[in-house]
Amino acid sequence: MIESQRHSYHLVDPSPWPISGSLGALATTVGGVMYMHSFQGGATLLSLGLIFILYTMFVWWRDVLRESTLEGHHTKVVQLGLRYGFILFIVSEVMLFFAFFWAFFHSSLAPTVEIGGIWPPKGIGVLDPWEIPFLNTLILLSSGAAVTWAHHAILAGKEKRAVYALVATVLLALVFTGFQGMEYYQAPFTISDSIYGSTFFLATGFHGFHVIIGTLFLIICGIRQYLGHLTKEHHVGFEAAAWYWHFVDVVWLFLFVSIYWWGGI
């Protein structure tokens, strides 16, 4: 006889996805190194590893959605734990970008003789911060306002309005990504052009990667909202996406002020 659960915590069932994700990450890492060093089969192993990771992400999150939406395992206590966990994840992301900013300011505040003792280094033509970067700032801030609109719509029980707000957020995110790609294509320097190129493309590139991940996150939330998964009482997945998107917004503001504007003076 199976006893009824006497607590509000979710004890997850055994799952194959952690080990499959680990194997996918191993294959991706080894394949990436082989590919970069021109070993035969490196590209194939890298591709298989990425496919394996993407498949694991899909089926694992599918199971999480079933547990929360259909099986009702995400009680108030579980939701609180998920919020705490996601906050800690964002803190770890803050530390990641802190390292990038540290590298930038370490190089720019005391430029070495190898780069001419000045910042920006000799021979580097910097981008005008008041062209595409400033436009992208306005676009990203507008997307942050749109995702807040979506949150308020969910809390008010206005499902269609929340879907419209999420569609607007995703469209603005795609426009931002398109402009960022155009800026990279037109940039007068590359990642190999001294420490300036390295820090610029590393910081803005990782931010762009986070924008793409956040966009996918918001697309999934939009689909779930359309299907009626999110309610005013239970929308932790959307809250996580909104927090992540606001984090992306704040990081971009720091990038614009420090790297684009101050770093190009």
UniProtKB/TrEMBL annotation:
CDD domains: Cyt_c_Oxidase_III
Transmembrane segments: 43-61, 82-105, 132-150, 162-180, 200-223, 243-263
Signal peptide feature range: none
Location in the cell: Mitochondrion inner membrane
Keywords: Membrane, Mitochondrion, Mitochondrion inner membrane, Oxidoreductase, Translocase, Transmembrane, Transmembrane helix
Pfam families: COX3
Function comment: Component of the cytochrome c oxidase, the last enzyme in the mitochondrial electron transport chain which drives oxidative phosphorylation. The respiratory chain contains 3 multisubunit complexes succinate dehydrogenase (complex II, CII), ubiquinol-cytochrome c oxidoreductase (cytochrome b-c1 complex, complex III, CIII) and cytochrome c oxidase (complex IV, CIV), that cooperate to transfer electrons derived from NADH and succinate to molecular oxygen, creating an electrochemical gradient over the inner membrane that drives transmembrane transport and the ATP synthase.
Name of this chain's protein: Cytochrome c oxidase subunit 3
Lineage of the species this protein comes from: Eukaryota, Viridiplantae, Streptophyta, Embryophyta, Tracheophyta
